[in-house]
Automatic annotation (TrEMBL):
Oligomer status and interactors: Homotetramer.
Organism: Hydrogenophaga palleronii
Family annotation (InterPro entries): ArAA_b-elim_lyase/Thr_aldolase, Low_specificity_L-TA-like, PyrdxlP-dep_Trfase, PyrdxlP-dep_Trfase_major, PyrdxlP-dep_Trfase_small
Record-given protein name: Threonine aldolase
Record-level Gene Ontology MF annotations: threonine aldolase activity
Cofactor: pyridoxal 5'-phosphate
PANTHER family cross-referenced by the UniProt entry: L-THREONINE ALDOLASE, L-THREONINE ALDOLASE-RELATED
Length: 355
């Protein structure tokens, strides 16, 4: 049995209250546009993000893809970070399905592309080149909120060159909550800079399925056509929209709890010799493990009911199904791995009771 699953904030189970909201949701057929729960969610997230319209999507990947295809035509190009989700982790969908050429650029440790690099990558209007059409940014990036000044400068630069802007905001609520104060106002400050934003309900917000693409009515109308084409026209999806709606109403402020638990974990792990903890600004903690012991540590933790991901650098993600006791258990198990002597730990811990 897995007791402390820190692989991702996608592993959460819907709460009892969320399941009740799903059971109570009035349903229709969303392909006909008459599912009241989907329509209510779309109106709600459009209002929260201050955009004209929103579209409920099956996943963040589908939402980013349909967003990029709504912004770009065949033969257009988008500028994107070398390690950004919309370039590296979405199966090349924009290129495969949209005939949109990515122009990936190097990012620094905070995920930022240099403004000079962005400017230099924008192609002149010349038949030799793809038409540079869109800038894609991601916030949070590896659990780090992007500095507001950078978001402002990068989107200003894009606008000066006539580029559209899309934010992959899978975890943008984490960025908004991390800033402190009014999370919904913080969210507006971020997304106001972009023409479109994609937000995941199935990560820290704790819904089982779904994302939303938000933007102008015209953009969303184009995206709806692409969504149908990629198989995302769902029917009684109000069942899922109700879960997302519940998450927006009840699970935003509590992201601060996930951030506090990530801090607790980071602090606990930072005292352990052999580990170096990278900053935990929201709900993701990256840890570098010395001497190539990452995989051994990972399997040691797995045997004790603590799950994480990674190889050289391990990744721990907090979420609404983890509590302080679970975090302390994860710290204790990691401590034991190093204090028992990493090489012997594997055999010794094999029979240990699972937490
Ligand atoms: C998870 C994630 C996505 C994609 O979401 P899926 O629902 O898994 O398709 C996109 N961007 C970022 C930054 C993500 O973390």
């Amino acid at each position: 049995m897995t007791a402390v699953d820190l692989r991702s904030d996608t592993v959460t189970q819907p709460t009892v209250a969320m399941r009740e909201a799903m059971m109570a949701a009035p349903l229709g057929d969303d392909v006909f546009g008459d599912d009241p729960s989907v329509n209510a969610l779309q109106a709600h997230i459009a209002a929260i993000t201050g955009k004209e319209a929103a579209l409920f999507m099956a996943s963040g990947t589908q939402s980013n893809l349909c967003g990029m295809m709504a912004h770009c035509d065949r033969g257009d190009e988008y500028i994107v970070g070398q390690n950004a989700h919309t370039y590296r982790y979405e199966g090349g969908g924009a290129a495969v399905l949209g005939s949109i050429q990515p122009q990936p650029l190097a990012q620094d440790a905070a995920g930022l592309m240099r403004l000079e690099d962005i400017a230099a990558a924008i192609k002149p209007d010349d038949p030799h080149f793809a038409r540079t059409r869109l800038l894609c940014l991601e916030n949070t990036w590896n659990g780090q909120p992007m500095p507001q000044a950078y978001l402002q400068q990068a989107t200003d630069l894009a606008r000066q060159h006539g580029l559209a802007t899309h934010l992959d905001g899978a975890r943008v609520f984490n960025a908004a909550v991390a800033r402190g104060g009014d999370a919904f106002q913080n969210l507006r400050d971020i997304v106001d800079l972009f023409d479109s934003v994609s937000i995941c309900f199935s990560k820290g917000l704790g819904a089982p399925v779904g994302s939303a693409l938000c933007g102008s009515r015209e953009l969303i109308d184009r995206a709806r056509r692409w969504r149908k084409m990629v198989g995302g026209g769902l029917r009684q999806s109000g069942l899922l929209a109700a879960a997302a709606h519940h998450a927006l109403d009840h699970h935003v402020a509590r992201l601060a709890d996930d951030h506090a638990l990530a801090q607790r974990l980071a602090q606990g792990l930072s005292n352990i010799k052999g580990l170096s903890v990278r900053s935990a600004q929201t709900n993701i903690v990256f840890v570098d493990v010395a001497d190539g012991l990452g995989p051994d540590l990972l399997s040691h933790l797995e045997r004790l009911g603590v799950r994480a991901t990674g190889l050289i650098g391990l990744r721990f993600v907090t979420h609404l199904d983890v509590d302080a006791a679970g975090i302390d258990h994860a710290i204790a198990c990691t401590q034991a791995f190093f204090s028992e002597g990493a090489s012997q730990t594997a055999s010794r811990s094999a029979g240990t009771a699972v937490y």
